[in-house]
TrEMBL record:
Keyword list, A-Z: Heme, Iron, Membrane, Metal-binding, Monooxygenase, Oxidoreductase, Transmembrane, Transmembrane helix
Matches recorded under InterPro entries: Cyt_P450, Cyt_P450_CS, Cyt_P450_E_CYP52_fungi, Cyt_P450_E_grp-I, Cyt_P450_sf
Residues the entry annotates as binding heme: 520
Transmembrane segments: 12-29, 35-55
GO molecular function terms attached to this record: heme binding; iron ion binding; monooxygenase activity; oxidoreductase activity, acting on paired donors, with incorporation or reduction of molecular oxygen
Protein name as it appears in the record: Cytochrome P450 monooxygenase CYP63
Family: Belongs to the cytochrome P450 family.
Required cofactor(s): heme
Keyword hit for rRNA-binding: no
């Protein structure tokens, strides 16, 4: 069944869960035994459906048990809620997603059950969550062939990301990966002309706002920078979002991810972000999310608004291809931009548009998130800014062109970027589905003493077609791996040989760009772009401060966070996630030049 037919899927499930047992009961009671139930008809049907479901569940458990014995594996620990189907846990989670610190709801469950991989089994459906580095490594890399994005994730994302690289497996994913990889070759991503152009425009905006004494939403500005640079890099046309109206301090409303503006660019950004929010909400409701969208696909208006922006670009690329073919011109890949190259590989405008959109999503929100959190740290740790700036001035001077070699020599800059990616990975969680044949996960890592003392070191059974949510953000803040100061922002840890050796021997501790065959294709582009931007920013400015007084109402951290441990107790902003991490309401800050 096509992933966009989620209502049909729900209808078939409804038939399977309710109608099939009712039909069997009807046949047995009225036809075979000719029983007349009278007033008891409805309770009898309900009772039979419940018994049927329990028997089915017991049968599935028995089959899993047999499979576990065959594989020499044990069961993944399972949450035991107070209400049937762990409905109490579901409600607690839904409440927590609105007000609690990112990832905290999962961390509390791991702490309660003293394990790093857990089955939430909400509404009788197995759903595995893991912060275990051994299991994350297996899912992404060493056991890659056992997992895919899977049907359920595709169903949630189809309307927005369709046939793009993030929403496809196997053949089509390989095709996209093969087509995209050449565009991230070293020569292409070390040509800094594009970064230079959009960095200069962004810094001009900062200067203009700064001279008026206003604060600005840097998250919004960095998103525009990343999108304009990526659009020129990918399809040779700047979307020119840096020229559109900026959000104004103290007046701007909260948008789906950051702040909102009332202009055509604002509508595009809002649609782009709302589509991500809808996908996130669907995944929180779990398997039965289509119940909430019976009378309309909530992503349709947002996806349509984004597609309206991209469709004309795709049309032009296909027309150009036709013109070139008629004229008998064939240019080499090196002379083409990504969109032209995509248009060469297929005539299907939907595949081209979906892949273009996937790359815009991949490059805008992640890079903007990284730059936003680096700025956050520069604002709250002036000593870090000072050291960073000294390094920039030493290696790159206060102006002039910047080379790839110069960027490579900025060791402290790299440490700051890595430390930011560790504490605030732009993709804080990721989802995969086990292929139907099932598999085993290796024994758990030694995070909890219960894992370590466990004498039973059998692997864990991963039933076929089960969804697994991996939480790199929790792994990257795990004190067992990173030490008792795991929650502390300390770039020096990336310059300490002993600590680096630990990470090198155990790379699954740090996977902000994912790992294995689906590792991020834009990793080096992102490091270059972020480093380049920060060099120019620090050449021009030296003082960064937060402006909490203009954060939109409802975007400052709730007081109750202070009672919990870890970063949330000191957080001055509200980190939140919808596919990617962001600062709720935007990051309002002042950027200035104090020293002369
Ligand atoms: C700080 C910046 C970035 C971070 C932290 C990041 C992180 C990630 C992560 C975690 C994935 C795996 C997603 C998944 O499996 O569901 C991914 C995939 C990907 N990223 Fe990035 N990314 C960044 C920047 C970029 C940029 C700038 C581009 C391109 C311009 C890009 C292109 C891609 C692509 C094409 C994939 C899909 C790979 C595949 O499925 O085979 N990324 N990225």
């Amino acid at each position: 069944m096509h992933p966009s037919n989620f209502r049909l899927r729900l209808l078939l499930d409804f038939l399977r869960i309710l109608v099939l047992p009712s039909a069997v009961f009807h046949l047995v009671s009225t036809r075979l035994y000719k029983i007349h139930l009278g007033l008891l008809t409805i309770p009898a049907y309900i009772g039979f459906i419940i018994c049927w479901s329990i028997c089915k569940s017991l049968l599935t458990r028995a089959l899993h048990h047999t499979e576990r014995s065959r594989l020499g594996a044990k069961e993944i620990p399972c949450i035991r809620g107070a209400w049937p189907g762990n409905i109490d846990v579901l409600l607690k989670m839904l409440r927590a997603f609105k007000t609690s610190y990112i990832g905290d709801v999962y961390l509390q469950l791991f702490e309660e059950y003293q394990c790093t991989t857990l089955n939430t089994r909400i509404l009788w459906t197995d759903h595995i969550i893991t912060m275990d580095q051994e299991h994350i490594k297996f899912v992404l890399a060493t056991g890659f062939e056992h997992f895919w994005r899977g049907r359920r994730q595709k169903e949630r994302m189809e309307r927005f990301l369709g046939k793009g690289i993030f929403n496809r497996d196997d053949e089509m994913w390989r095709m996209h990966r093969g087509n995209t990889r050449p565009f991230f070759a070293r020569e292409r991503i070390s040509d800094f002309d594009i970064f230079e152009r959009y960095t200069a425009r962004t810094l001009n905006t900062i200067s203009a706002v700064q001279s008026s004494g206003q604060a600005l939403d840097v998250q919004d500005l960095f998103s525009r920078f990343a999108l304009d640079a990526a659009s020129e890099f990918l399809f040779g046309k700047n979307l020119d979002t840096l020229s559109a109206t900026l959000p104004v301090a103290g007046q701007t409303k909260m948008g789906p991810k950051g702040s909102a503006t009332d202009d055509p660019w604002g509508s595009f950004a809002s649609a782009f972000e709302m589509a991500q929010q809808v996908i996130t909400t669907r995944s929180r409701y779990g398997y039965f999310w289509p119940i909430f969208e019976l009378f309309g696909d909530k992503n349709a208006p947002h996806a349509d608004a984004v597609h309206r922006y991209l469709d004309p670009l795709v049309k032009t690329a296909l027309e150009e291809k036709e013109r070139m073919a008629k004229a008998g011109v064939c240019s080499p890949v090196a002379d083409k931009n990504f969109l032209q190259h995509l248009a060469e590989s297929t005539d299907d405008p939907i595949i081209i548009r979906d892949q273009l959109l996937s790359l815009l999503l991949a490059s805008r929100d992640t890079t903007a998130c990284l730059l936003t959190f680096v700025t956050y740290f520069m604002a709250i740790y002036p000593e870090v800014t000072k050291k960073l700036r000294a390094e920039v001035l030493e290696h790159c001077g206060s102006a002039g062109s910047i080379t790839y070699e110069q960027l490579r020599n900025l060791k402290y800059m790299r440490a700051v970027i890595n430390e930011t990616l560790r504490l605030y990975p732009p993709v804080p969680l990721n989802v995969r589905e086990c292929r139907p044949s099932g598999c085993t996960l290796p024994p758990s890592d030694p995070t909890f003493s219960s894992n370590m003392m466990e004498s039973d070191i059998r692997p864990l059974h991963m039933p076929g077609s089960t969804v697994i949510t991996i939480l790199p953000m929790l792994t990257q803040r795990n004190p067992e791996l990173w030490g008792s100061d795991a929650d502390v922002f300390d770039p020096e840890r990336w310059m300490d040989k002993e600590r680096i050796a630990r990470f090198v021997s155990n790379p699954a501790m740090f996977t902000p760009f994912s790992a294995g065959p689906r590792i991020c294709l834009g990793q080096n582009y992102a490091y270059n772009e972020a480093s380049f931007f920060l060099v120019r920013l620090l050449q021009q400015f030296d003082t960064f401060s937060l402006a909490p007084e203009v954060q939109p109402s409802g975007s400052l951290p709730p007081h109750e966070w202070k009672q919990r441990k870890g970063r949330q107790a000191e957080e001055r902003i509200w980190p939140s996630a919808a596919l990617t991490l962001f600062v709720k309401g935007g990051l309002w800050a002042r950027i200035a030049k104090e020293s002369h």
